[in-house]
Design a protein that fits this description.
Blueprint lengths: L9 E7 L6 E2 L6 E2 L4 E7 L7 E3 L1 H9 L6 H4 L6 H9 L1
Length: 89
């Protein structure tokens, strides 16, 4: 299985522990306290590689460019209307 850090892009969303589980942040290596608010980070949309991370660690990694979003790495294709207009122009 590819490593968490080997991904080209990441999906990130807020998460809340609803079970008394403790996770280790993949960005700093420290523990996330059970039932704390944090972020869920999913490398390249692969849910089997998802990791729970401190919100502050995620924000710092985003600022440093270490957790790019998909749109930053793979720009979206123009929609059908834009492609049609480009052909005419």
């Amino acid at each position: 299985m590819p490593d968490f850090r080997d991904a080209r892009w990441y999906a990130i969303r807020p998460a809340h522990n609803r079970k008394p589980a403790t996770y280790r942040c993949p960005l700093c290596g420290r523990h996330l306290p059970a039932l704390s608010e944090h972020m869920l980070v999913v490398p390249e949309g692969d849910a089997s590689r998802r990791r729970h991370a401190h919100s502050a660690c995620v924000m710092a990694a985003r600022r440093d460019g270490r957790l790019p979003f998909r749109d930053e790495v793979e720009p979206r294709r123009p929609g059908p209307l834009r492609r049609l207009l480009q052909r005419r122009g």
